[in-house]
Structures are given as C-alpha cells and as structure tokens.
Design goal:
155 residues, 4-stranded mixed sheet, rod-shaped
Amino acid sequence: VIGQRLGGKLKDIIPASKKGEYEVSGENLLIAGETLLPSEFEERLTIKDGLTGKAVLNNTAVVILDTELTPELKREGIARDMIRAIQDERKAIDLNVSDRINITVSTESDEVKTALETWGDMIKTQTLADSITMGSGKTEVIIEDDTISFEVKKA
C-alpha cells in the first residue's frame, strides 16, 4: 500500500521497521522521516529470539512458554508416566475403579527411584494405592529409556 504513495522511500522504511526504529503517534506511525496512516501499517507482537511463544489472535498479548526441562520436571514426567502404566495395568487385571491397590516396583535407575520418592504421594493418590514398595515386578514399561518392572495387586 505504501509503495504506491512513498515509492523509493521504502528502502529506508523497511530497514527501520526491522530495527524497531519507529514511533506510534496517535493512529499514525512515524518512521524514517515519514508518517504512515493507519491503513498503511499493522502492528504485530513478536517473540524475542531465544524464547518460545506466540501472539494471541487479536494481537493483544503474547504467551511465552518456558520449555526448559529441569530435573524436577523430568522426575514429575516419570511419575506421570508411571501413573499411566499403573492405570493401564489396573484395567488389564480387571480391577474395579474403586479398588485399592499395592504397587511393587523394580528399577536400576536412580532417576526413577528419586521420582518415585518425590512423587510417591501423587502416584498413590492418582492410582488408589496404599503402598509403593521396591521389589520385583511382572509388568515392564520403558520410561525415559529406563526399563521399570512393576506389579499391581489388589489390597
């Protein structure tokens, strides 16, 4: 749109816009010594380099996601994967939804052991388990490249 009106001045306007060298004044945009009318420009929110996120559709806000996987988040993920495996096993052995259980887990992974210690209460609550103990199990699941064997028994 502005190419028709300002022609050769675009060579100054485009680099200035990319560098953020402009000012919104009322409804107009002041850039490279020119004034753009509201129909000649559009403001959009963008994400800074190195961040993960997106502007919402009406361009009124930006959602930024912290995608760093900390050791705590990895352990929580392990615990949630264990919950899913235990719930699948509950179905496989035909337990009722309200049946209480005891869980026995075997793993060589210190990370999995730490996850079970840290998130044990959540696992027990989500699976209706009275206990989680270390020992041998019949069912195997691979979580985070670690093989875990476990057994679910009705309490």
